[in-house]
Here is the input.
Amino acid sequence: MTDTPLFAAREPVFPRKVQGTFRRLKWIVMILTLGIYYLTPWIRWDRGPNLPDQAVLVDLAGRRFYFFWIEIWPHEFYFVAGLLIMAGLGLFLFTSALGRVWCGYTCPQTVWTDLFIATERWIEGDRNARVRLWKAKWDARKIRLRLTKYLVWALIGMATGGAWVFYFADAPALARDLVAGQAQPVAYITIAVLTFTTVLMGGIAREQVCIYMCPWPRIQGAMMDEGTLTVGYRDWRGEPRGKKHENAEGDCIDCMACVNVCPMGIDIREGQQLACITCALCIDACDDVMDKIGKPRGLIDYLALSDAPPADDTTQRAAVVPLGVTNKADSVSVPVGGAPAPAPNAGPAPIITTAARDWQPQPVWKHILRPRTIVYTVLWGAIGLALLFALFIRPEIDMTVAAVRNPQFVTLSDGSIRNAYDIRLRNKHGEARDFHVSLTSDATLRIGLEGRDDLTVPVPPDSTLLQRVYVTARPDDAAATEERTDLRFWVEDLISGERTYGDSQFFGKEPE
Ligand code: SF4
Ligand code: SF4
Here is the structure.
């Protein structure tokens, strides 16, 4: 049994501003992802008359999903299922190659938290100023700064909720209605709920969501292995840590820059932690420090467990190459076989061994191109190709048949046996089409349409139509006394000549 509590009260985190390669990459990803999210509903796409001109639209009333030139009907939900499977496999692929790269760069929680921290820094100042403000007594300045911050956060949250509702209706028309106060109540309620939850999750709860609410960190642990690249600290190079005057031998000068920039408030030098979202900001912070003290970059870096220097029977010193960086390293300390890092300033200077000095980490491509990642890529590509193939061969007309089995058949006054069927006809064209309905069977059967003199059904553009169909066997036809007779309904578009079919069965009256 351990006395470790399951929940610790939140210690506020005040991440310091940092600059560098990964910070720039995160800005680019943030602009791209938020830009796509906020702007997509405003893109127009001409589908012709009678159809919405919004490029991406979830039309709940029309039971349709529009994505540029693709139109998904409810019975084609397998496309959405396929895309979800591809998204899952994509996550497996990226996680096995690059660890929690989704969490660090593209997860909405990370992106919005990053945005909220940036606006907080803009309004309240960098880390030290924010710490001072947090400790300060409430006065006019503190109230003004806090109110300004929450107002800006609320506007961001409102834009987030607003963008969401625009995916479900014509965006310009809905925007006008929202401003005029004439939109549906559900639109206002959705925006209010999303404004509140965005501010709560991204602005206030922040890292608590990742640590306590999100199941993904636990799942990802199972997808990573010793070959996975993730953000880590080269303890064999950094330890024993300490300031120069403390006679430390490792490259880490214990400046805490990596801890101060961490949005999760953790110390990566303590090893891999569930809270680490691998945002890589600590890499930028430490690289900056290494530049200033004239040491090679990469003390904190993307690295894999399998990249530990060779085990030896003594503590060693080795030349370590940061992944993808030219080796300019001085000698550094290496704990044996991945053993815990020595305590800061512990022990005498370690010994250099030839094996450790010659040791080089695997190149990055070897971590990415592994049997496991290749299998994921092949599966991902195969599903993608299958979906594309299904998309291009799907017909513009479609039908489903449902036999009416209550009752199974009726006996007409002349002794004929009649079965009824409901046929749902789908016209995916932008104009009305006449569909001709017929049937084929080994037995002799007659077909008729309820409410129509002939076998032609006009179906309006881009819609479905339910048609009751009757099939009859005369008393002397074999099907009248057969328990079941197979039959196939055909539907033909009289303009394009496209055909499709659906199978069913005819139930006869067994002889007594
Ligand atoms: S930023 Fe680098 S040098 Fe500074 S404490 Fe972190 S690991 Fe050590
Ligand atoms: S330890 Fe580094 S990579 Fe992990 S969350 Fe903190 S700053 Fe990001």
Remarks:
- The first strand starts at residue 56 and ends at 59.
- Residues 77-105+371-394 form one domain.
- DSSP finds 17 helices and 17 strands in the chain.
